[in-house]
Amino acid sequence: RAAVGKQWGITPKIAEWIYTAVVRPNLEYGIEITNTALQNKKIANKLRSVQGKALKMITGALTTTATADLNILTDTIDIIEHLKVVAAKSITKLRNEGQWTKEKPKHNGHTRIDENASRYIGQKQIDTTTPTLNLDTAFTTNIPN
Protein backbone atom coordinates (compact mmCIF):
# COMPACT_ATOMS: atom_id res chain seq x y z
CA ARG A 1 0.00 0.00 0.00
CA ALA A 2 2.85 2.38 0.75
CA ALA A 3 4.10 1.99 -2.83
CA VAL A 4 1.34 4.19 -4.28
CA GLY A 5 0.87 7.87 -3.52
CA LYS A 6 -0.28 11.10 -5.13
CA GLN A 7 3.17 12.70 -4.98
CA TRP A 8 5.47 9.65 -4.84
CA GLY A 9 5.74 5.97 -5.71
CA ILE A 10 4.14 4.17 -8.61
CA THR A 11 1.08 5.64 -10.27
CA PRO A 12 -2.35 4.05 -9.96
CA LYS A 13 -2.10 3.15 -13.67
CA ILE A 14 1.10 1.17 -13.01
CA ALA A 15 -0.51 -0.44 -9.95
CA GLU A 16 -3.40 -1.57 -12.16
CA TRP A 17 -0.94 -2.93 -14.72
CA ILE A 18 0.95 -4.85 -12.01
CA TYR A 19 -2.30 -6.36 -10.73
CA THR A 20 -3.69 -7.36 -14.13
CA ALA A 21 -0.39 -8.43 -15.72
CA VAL A 22 1.50 -9.95 -12.78
CA VAL A 23 -0.65 -10.67 -9.71
CA ARG A 24 -3.87 -11.94 -11.29
CA PRO A 25 -2.14 -14.32 -13.74
CA ASN A 26 -0.35 -15.85 -10.76
CA LEU A 27 -3.72 -16.43 -9.11
CA GLU A 28 -5.03 -17.94 -12.36
CA TYR A 29 -2.14 -20.40 -12.73
CA GLY A 30 -3.39 -23.97 -12.42
CA ILE A 31 -6.95 -22.91 -11.63
CA GLU A 32 -8.27 -25.71 -13.87
CA ILE A 33 -7.11 -28.19 -11.25
CA THR A 34 -7.50 -26.16 -8.04
CA ASN A 35 -10.88 -24.58 -8.85
CA THR A 36 -12.74 -26.61 -6.23
CA ALA A 37 -10.79 -24.69 -3.57
CA LEU A 38 -12.76 -21.59 -4.60
CA GLN A 39 -15.73 -23.06 -2.72
CA ASN A 40 -13.77 -22.83 0.53
CA LYS A 41 -14.83 -19.56 2.21
CA LYS A 42 -11.45 -19.03 3.87
CA ILE A 43 -9.59 -19.33 0.56
CA ALA A 44 -12.19 -17.21 -1.26
CA ASN A 45 -11.86 -14.48 1.38
CA LYS A 46 -8.05 -14.47 1.03
CA LEU A 47 -8.33 -14.13 -2.75
CA ARG A 48 -10.86 -11.31 -2.37
CA SER A 49 -8.49 -9.66 0.12
CA VAL A 50 -5.69 -9.69 -2.49
CA GLN A 51 -8.02 -8.17 -5.06
CA GLY A 52 -9.29 -5.63 -2.55
CA LYS A 53 -5.79 -4.46 -1.64
CA ALA A 54 -4.92 -4.06 -5.31
CA LEU A 55 -8.10 -2.11 -6.05
CA LYS A 56 -7.49 0.16 -3.05
CA MET A 57 -4.01 0.93 -4.36
CA ILE A 58 -5.39 1.58 -7.83
CA THR A 59 -8.22 3.85 -6.70
CA GLY A 60 -6.68 5.40 -3.60
CA ALA A 61 -9.75 4.32 -1.62
CA LEU A 62 -9.77 4.12 2.16
CA THR A 63 -8.79 0.82 3.75
CA THR A 64 -12.33 0.48 5.08
CA THR A 65 -13.87 0.50 1.59
CA ALA A 66 -15.51 -2.83 0.79
CA THR A 67 -14.03 -4.87 -2.06
CA ALA A 68 -17.50 -5.40 -3.54
CA ASP A 69 -17.90 -1.61 -3.78
CA LEU A 70 -14.49 -1.26 -5.42
CA ASN A 71 -15.44 -3.96 -7.94
CA ILE A 72 -18.44 -1.85 -8.95
CA LEU A 73 -16.45 1.40 -8.97
CA THR A 74 -13.68 -0.03 -11.17
CA ASP A 75 -15.95 -2.27 -13.27
CA THR A 76 -13.94 -5.30 -12.10
CA ILE A 77 -15.45 -8.76 -11.80
CA ASP A 78 -15.18 -10.49 -8.42
CA ILE A 79 -11.97 -12.54 -8.35
CA ILE A 80 -13.81 -15.79 -7.55
CA GLU A 81 -16.15 -15.40 -10.52
CA HIS A 82 -13.19 -14.39 -12.69
CA LEU A 83 -11.25 -17.51 -11.71
CA LYS A 84 -14.29 -19.72 -12.39
CA VAL A 85 -14.55 -18.25 -15.90
CA VAL A 86 -10.81 -18.70 -16.51
CA ALA A 87 -11.01 -22.33 -15.36
CA ALA A 88 -14.07 -23.03 -17.49
CA LYS A 89 -12.49 -21.47 -20.59
CA SER A 90 -9.29 -23.46 -20.09
CA ILE A 91 -11.17 -26.70 -19.54
CA THR A 92 -13.32 -26.10 -22.62
CA LYS A 93 -10.25 -25.38 -24.72
CA LEU A 94 -8.50 -28.50 -23.42
CA ARG A 95 -11.63 -30.57 -24.07
CA ASN A 96 -11.86 -29.22 -27.66
CA GLU A 97 -8.21 -30.20 -28.19
CA GLY A 98 -8.88 -33.68 -26.82
CA GLN A 99 -6.60 -33.12 -23.84
CA TRP A 100 -9.28 -33.12 -21.11
CA THR A 101 -10.74 -36.50 -20.27
CA LYS A 102 -14.17 -37.21 -18.88
CA GLU A 103 -12.84 -40.01 -16.71
CA LYS A 104 -13.97 -39.50 -13.14
CA PRO A 105 -11.30 -40.08 -10.52
CA LYS A 106 -12.29 -41.65 -7.22
CA HIS A 107 -12.06 -38.31 -5.41
CA ASN A 108 -14.22 -36.54 -8.06
CA GLY A 109 -12.39 -33.26 -7.45
CA HIS A 110 -11.17 -31.13 -10.32
CA THR A 111 -13.49 -32.61 -12.94
CA ARG A 112 -16.60 -31.16 -11.27
CA ILE A 113 -16.27 -27.80 -12.98
CA ASP A 114 -16.26 -29.56 -16.36
CA GLU A 115 -19.94 -30.36 -15.88
CA ASN A 116 -20.82 -26.67 -15.41
CA ALA A 117 -18.18 -25.08 -17.65
CA SER A 118 -20.67 -23.67 -20.12
CA ARG A 119 -22.57 -22.01 -17.26
CA TYR A 120 -19.50 -20.01 -16.26
CA ILE A 121 -18.51 -19.10 -19.80
CA GLY A 122 -21.89 -18.13 -21.20
CA GLN A 123 -21.62 -16.94 -24.78
CA LYS A 124 -18.07 -15.58 -24.50
CA GLN A 125 -15.49 -16.34 -27.14
CA ILE A 126 -13.00 -19.09 -26.40
CA ASP A 127 -9.53 -19.24 -27.89
CA THR A 128 -9.38 -22.59 -29.69
CA THR A 129 -5.99 -22.14 -31.33
CA THR A 130 -3.28 -24.65 -30.55
CA PRO A 131 -0.28 -22.96 -28.91
CA THR A 132 3.07 -23.11 -30.66
CA LEU A 133 6.52 -22.39 -29.31
CA ASN A 134 8.69 -20.05 -31.36
CA LEU A 135 12.03 -19.24 -29.75
CA ASP A 136 13.40 -17.44 -32.81
CA THR A 137 11.25 -14.32 -32.41
CA ALA A 138 12.68 -11.47 -30.38
CA PHE A 139 10.26 -9.53 -28.23
CA THR A 140 10.21 -6.50 -25.98
CA THR A 141 8.20 -5.63 -22.90
CA ASN A 142 6.66 -2.19 -22.59
CA ILE A 143 5.63 -0.94 -19.17
CA PRO A 144 3.22 2.00 -19.38
CA ASN A 145 4.16 5.29 -17.71
N to C succession of SSEs: HHHHHHH
Shape: flat
Largest sheet: none
Strand content: under 5%
Q: Spans with pLDDT under 50 lasting ≥5 residues?
A: none
- First and last CA, distance: 19 Å
Can you put this structure into words, describing what you see?
The chain has helices spanning 12-28, 31-34, 41-59, 67-73, 79-96, 112-115, 117-121. The protein has 145 residues and is an all-alpha fold. The chain is flat and about 50 Å long.
Jot down its keywords.
145 residues; 51% helix; flat
Task: Give the arrangement of secondary structure elements.
Blueprint: H1 12-28, H2 31-34, H3 41-59, H4 67-73, H5 79-96, H6 112-115, H7 117-121
Q: Can I get a quick summary?
A:
The chain has 145 residues and is mainly alpha-helical. It has helices at residues 12-28, 31-34, 41-59, 67-73, 79-96, 112-115, 117-121.
